[in-house]
Amino acid sequence: MMVKTIQQGDLEYLVAENIGTAHCFTTRFGGVSKGHLAAMNIGIHRGDKPENVLKNYEILGNTLGFSPKKAVLTTQTHTDIVRTVGESEHGAGLFAPELPPCDGLITCTPGTALVVFTADCTPILLHDPVTGAVGAVHAGWRGTAAAIGAKAVQAMCREFGCKAENIRAAIGPNIAGCCFETDKDVPEAMVAQYGAAAEKYIRAVGNKFFVDLKEINALGLASVGVENIAISQLCTACDGDRFWSHRRVGGNRGSQGAIIVCKE
Predict the structure, then answer these.
(1) Where do the structural domains in the chain lie, given as residue ranges?
(2) Is the domain covering 3-261 a CATH 3.60.140.10 domain?
(3) Model's pTM, two decimal places?
(4) C-alpha 206: how far from its chain's center?
(5) pLDDT in tens, 137-170
């Protein structure tokens, strides 16, 4: 199962072949934002002009087939909170007040587009083709250590009657194991959550550690019964022209992210 690049004029985004509903992982290319935010910034707190951000959502909506007025944006604080949303939350963050903090969204309401933001953290998209339910997750290292991806799957099963073995998952570009250098607190948190199985994805170099968050998130998804997982090999820190990386440039950046649409 591959995560592949789609090019449509100036617009570039990634899709996972297994997901089975409209979705994307965005890149920096194809929007109207200017300067250090050029061009496809989808973040609403990056200092961008609101009209530029909205135009970027319109471009993505026209491409994927969703209305920005039915998009629901996260208010991310590196938690393991997963919220169930529907029609009453449409427009949150763009046309309506933001949601209370959460780092995961799930829905079974047709037409709803779920949005998470990243600039090194791990985006995870979920789709159950049997019930139609979808999920979008922002997994920083703290969210990964709290198994937020697995908790989103469990929430979909609890709220919508999904079965984990039917859920398809895609893990998008993040700061990969080649570049995610940490102190010992991060690997210790991973081993505390996932046990010895996480050690395979932690590499010690002197008194530092390199941690593969993609594979550890996949480990968490598999632990609750998800079998169909596509993983992007792209690294946001390696490819600064294509992706924003907080590790590389700090706060002087835009946001890419991931979007998934519940089928009409």
Answers:
(1) 3-261
(2) yes
(3) 0.98
(4) 31
(5) 999 999 999 999 999 999 999 999 999 999 999 9
